[in-house]
Amino acid sequence: MIRVLIVDDQAMIRVGIRAILESQDDIAVVGEAENGRAGVDLYQRTRPDVVLMDVRMPVLDGLAAARALLGVERVEGHEPRVLMLTTFDLDDYIYEALRIGASGFLLKDGEPEDLVHAVRVVAAGEALLSPSVTRRLIETFVASRPRPADGSVALNGLTDREREVLRLIAQGMSNAEISATLFIAEQTTKTHVSRILHKLGLRDRVQAVVFGYECGLVTPGGG
Fold first, then answer.
1. What is the mean pLDDT of residues 151-179?
2. pLDDT(147) > 60
3. Pick the CATH number of 2-128 from 3.40.50.261, 3.20.20.70, 3.40.50.2300, 3.10.290.10
4. pLDDT tens digits, residue range 25-54?
5. The pLDDT of residue 73 is above 80
């Protein structure tokens, strides 16, 4: 059973999300919170598999709450998966959330099946990279920011093959697509991905995509 916590300051949104999720046999909503602070507190008591986190809320906004869950305040031994909810498809808050380790984001006006699919994907430990808007958002905000000096230094710790795999991850390719492109076994690709995330201290593929753009391995609008 996938345990979900809903954090949103709009009661009608919470009710709608709960109804959609609880219509599924494999998903249970373990709690609701109306602001980020209450969400962090409730997370520590319920330890859900997935947190659906609104971006803009009173008391503590979604970005600060996500940072608390994904950083030093997270419950040891229970890795939180945070899925951000937003009304806007290009939002600086969402970009920052992806940088700090959120597993993806959903638009509030999306289809119910998209919500259910996203919860299942994130609960399985994957990053929600499928919506094309995710890459567009990353490209938009990376293009307007200075390149971090430590990005190129971190790349020096990767082998040539690992750099190539990271570049393809940043372009949005799946493991199967990377394997076909490089003519290697999919298990080999999975091994490369795991080593890349470990060497760079990245949480998942979302952070790998952001890192690939920020360090200049992939350029906005290019490859």
1. 85
2. no
3. 3.40.50.2300
4. 999 999 999 999 999 999 989 999 999 999
5. no
SS3 50: strand
> Does 1.10.10.1450 match the CATH number of domain 147-214?
no
* Neighbouring residues of 92: CB distance < 8 A, sequence distance ≥ 6: 141
Query: To 10 degrees, what angle do helices 112-123 and 11-22 make?
Result: 70
Domain positions in the chain are 2-128, 147-214
Q: What local confidence, expressed as pLDDT, does residue 76 receive? A: 57
Nearest to 66, CA basis, from 86, 41, 84, 79: 84
Angle between helices 92-100 and 62-70 (to 10 degrees): 0
Q: Based on the number of CB atoms within 10 Å of its own CB, is 169 exposed (0-12), middle (13-18) or buried (19 or more)?
A: buried
What is d(CA 197, CA 19) in angstroms, rounded to the nearest whole number?
A: 36
Q: Please answer whether residues 171 and 162 qualify as being in contact, where contact means their C-beta atoms are separated by less than 8 angstroms.
A: no
For residue 2, report the phi and psi dihedrals to the nearest 5 degrees: -90, 120
Lowest mean pLDDT among 55-69, 125-139, 171-185: 125-139
Separation CA 167–CA 153 (nearest Å): 16
Cα Rg of the chain, angstroms: 17
Q: Categorise residue 87: left if φ over 0, alpha if ψ from -120 to 50, beta otherwise.
A: alpha
